[in-house]
Amino acid sequence: MTTSVMLPDNPTLDEYKKRLAELSERGVTEFARAANADELEAARIEFLGDQRGKLREFQIVLGKLPKEARPEAGRLFNAAKARLTDALELRRQEIAKLGDDSTTRPADLTMPARRSWRGAKHPVTLVIEEIEGIFRELGFTIAIGPEAETEWYNFGALNFPPNHPAMDLHDTLYLSGEGLLRTHTSPVQIRTLQRYAPPIRVLIPGRVYRRDFFDPSHAPAFEQIEGLCIDEGISFVDLKATLTRFANRFFGQRPTRFRPSFFPFTEPSAEMDVQCGVCGGQGCGVCKQTGWVEILGSGMVHPAVLEAAGVDSERYSGWAFGMGPGRIAISRYGIPDIRILYDSDVRFLEQISE
Ligand SMILES: [Zn+2]
Q1: Could you say which of 109, 120, 146, 160 has the lowest number of CB atoms within 10 Å?
Q2: Residue 287 alpha carbon to ligand 1 centre in Å
Q3: For 293-319, how does the pLDDT look when each residue is reduced to its tens digit (9 = 90+)?
């Protein structure tokens, strides 16, 4: 609120003109300064109110002026009233456009624009994409398949005899009715062999499920990626050469080794290790003092698997491998707890995003 414009009871014409000019100047300023409809209404009452508005005083005093001064004073009064009324209306329209928001200020066009939020790729996605890129260069294509599978595709066709001890490794999530959630991506090998004739080179990424508790190193759902190569005359040499080339591209020029292993669907089978990148083979906590880190399981596709998928195992042979991109991401980025991969915490993802 502004202080009242002091107007003597019996002013001269000059005093009247001077005070009236001051009043209209202040009124125009107050209207323009009003930030919202409420403030504007308060200013309107102060200056243009019927009962106690400041302009009303000038109307009353108008009748007390000397007779000869009244025409000019009246004209000035009307002009001042018109000026205030116009300023009020102008500000009323401006506020209506601003949406009557009391916090609204004129936009500051010099402020830097907000950056649009783009998110970040998940570390497991980064690992999968890098693996896919390397194998694409080696002539592999990507194949995918269903996550809900039949027992035959998940076990039977992959040479798991009924009640074979290896099935205990896969504590399976069975669906009500029939079917199960696939415990590995290997059923897609069978589906690919059934659908396409050799030569086949496919890379199979996908989510798999195990009946595991969520703990720092286990999860009931995780990503797997495997590869399959089938053609005439494929031998273990091809397996070794291709996987060594992959390891050198992915992990750098570090020594690799193959250890004999067992899987129902390959024969012979081998685990592949890469020399520990932390200690350089000397032995440390990361490699459990062995100097080596296991990266994948592999082997020559068992003839029974080829036959189950309708492929002539006398004519064709091949190899397969499988690995866990989640475990690779954990070791590559030094993630202490596998559960962090499932938190969807953007602050974590942004640290790793490349
Ligand atoms: Zn080590």
Answers
A1: 109
A2: 4
A3: 899 999 999 999 999 999 999 999 999
Give residues with Cβ within 8 angstroms of 190, minimum separation 6: 153, 157, 158, 305, 308, 309
Q: What is the pLDDT of residues 257-296, one digit of tens each?
A: 999 999 999 999 999 999 988 888 998 887 889 999 899 9
How far, in Å, CA of 106 to CA of 38, rounded? Answer: 18
CA 294 – ligand 1 centroid, Å: 11
When comparing pLDDT for 213 and 143, which is higher? 143
Ligand 1 geometric centre to CA of 255 (Å):
13
Query: How is the chain split into domains, by residue range?
Result: 13-97, 123-352
**Is the separation of the CB atoms in 296 and 271 below 8 Å?**
yes
Ligand 1 centroid–CA 329 distance in Å is 17
Torsion 153-197-225-282 (CA) sign? positive
Which DSSP letter does residue 261 get?
A: E
CATH 3.30.930.10 fits 123-352, yes or no: yes
